[in-house]
Design goal:
Length: 439
């Protein structure tokens, strides 16, 4: 899943507590960047594993789609409770608990590989990642300085995308080297070969995830992390506030916007490798994994292009143009040759890159108050990443995977509609080239 920006309402000024000084810290900013990398590394690996999981556990498309469902439903369950925990205990304890939960989830699947343990394990990992993402955006603003937050958040998004690009390549490296393990192998491969079953080498990833998460627990435990003080409208509100917001049609419409975007993102990424294997005979361990990696890599590149375009055009126009281009790319991927699909699937990622930040910013700029609570509601909409891939899998079992993926056009249609009906109170600032030329 791509990086989201919660509680990013704009510059603010904080009062300093007498007992806990608030300091800018390059170390903490670096730690947060590392955390974003690890979150992405653990989160976006499910897609490349789908063909392997289907074969090893003998699953239908519907049953294998339950795995990303278990992961992303955790966002719906944990996002708002995580905000409440952070307000009570602050960010550091919640971050430690998050990585501990992720490490436990990874260890359960690594030690006891089966379909049922995979479902439970992915729910635990998803819970940990949801808690982390709620914690680290406000912390990034605090440690890096609110005046630098936009820049730091952009860097974090690029790091997030880079990790999503790398993780499928690590999977490919581990699986291929474990299959031909010899006395000349490096210490990582030799160690994993002793604990990973020969018939399911992809489980090695979850041993790696367990160790990485445990290392993050130790790093955060010994790190000095500042306390975050929030403006009044950045606090996670009471249940009454959430219920009031849910009565607002604008809130519901933007909730559906985030829901459909994350569903689209995961509905493409999770099925790329299986689609290429099923319809074009490409090896999931090599070509499939590489194509998924480039889907996330192209999304990162598209994010950079989007930053430039959003300085030139209204964000609603950019959203419509990129969504139409994503539709064209998905059509090419589904109905043209295998060689075209290898390029078209990453292009879907490229053109999807602006959707989340534009929808999120339009949403927050469309209400006058309770931005913290609204952010929590929007983050909860990440459960779309659980629901839409499951629908695609169910339809795929009945009508074939290609036809099942046609359902994603409905998500794209809704996302494009936002560019027409959204009426933000504040629009994105653009550069007026005509004024610049005259000056």
């Amino acid at each position: 899943m791509y990086l989201y920006h919660s509680l990013t309402i704009g510059p603010s000024h904080f009062t300093q507590k007498e007992d806990i000084p608030i300091r800018r810290s390059y170390f903490v900013v670096g730690l947060i960047f590392l955390t974003f990398f690890v979150i992405s590394f653990l989160t976006n690996i499910i897609g490349p594993l789908v063909p392997e999981i289907i074969d090893d556990f003998e699953l239908s498309l519907t049953l294998v789609a339950v795995l990303p469902f278990a992961f992303f439903i955790a966002y719906g369950v944990m996002s708002i409770p995580a905000g409440l925990l952070i307000e009570k205990y602050q960010e550091k304890p919640v971050m430690i608990a998050s990585f501990a939960i992720a490490s436990l989830g990874s260890l359960i699947l690594a030690a006891f590989p089966s379909y049922l343990t995979a479902v439970f394990s992915l729910f635990l990992i998803g819970s940990g990642m949801a808690m982390l993402q709620v914690a680290i955006n406000p912390l990034l603003r605090e440690a890096g300085g609110e005046e630098h937050f936009a820049f730091n958040a952009t860097v974090a998004q690029l790091i997030f995308g880079a990790a999503s690009f790398i993780s499928p390549l690590v999977y490919s490296y581990l699986v291929l080297n474990l299959e031909k393990e010899s006395s000349d192998s490096n210490i990582l491969i030799m160690t994993l070969s002793k604990i990973v079953p020969e018939n399911i080498p992809w489980i090695s990833l979850y041993w790696l995830f367990a160790v990485i998460s445990l290392l993050m627990v130790g790093i955060i435990f010994v790190s000095k992390i500042p306390e975050v003080e929030r403006k009044a409208d950045e606090h996670v509100g009471a249940l009454k506030t959430h219920l009031e917001l849910l009565k607002n049609p604008t809130v519901i419409l933007f909730f559906l916007g985030i829901f459909t975007y994350v569903g689209l993102e995961q509905g493409v990424a999770n099925w790329i490798s299986e689609f290429l294997n099923k319809y074009h005979g490409y090896d999931p361990q090599t070509t499939g994994a590489t194509t998924v990696a480039w889907f996330w890599g192209a999304m990162t590149i598209g994010g950079i292009a989007g930053i430039v375009l959003l300085k030139l055009l209204d964000s609603k126009i950019v959203l419509v143009i990129f969504t139409i281009a994503a539709m064209v790319s998905l059509t090419a991927a589904l109905f043209m040759s295998g060689s075209v699909a290898l390029i078209a699937f990453p292009l879907v990622g490229f053109f999807s890159s602006v959707m989340y930040p534009v929808i999120f910013s339009l949403a927050l700029n469309s209400v006058e108050e309770h931005h913290g609570s609204f952010s929590g509601i929007l983050v909860t909409a990440i459960i779309g990443g659980a629901v839409l891939p499951l629908i695609v899998g169910g339809l795929g079992d009945i009508f074939g995977l290609r036809n099942g993926m046609l359902f994603l056009y409905l998500a794209m249609g809704y996302i494009m509609s936002i560019g027409f009906w959204a009426k933000p109170l504040i629009t994105n600032e653009t550069i007026d080239l005509r004024k610049k030329e005259s000056a």
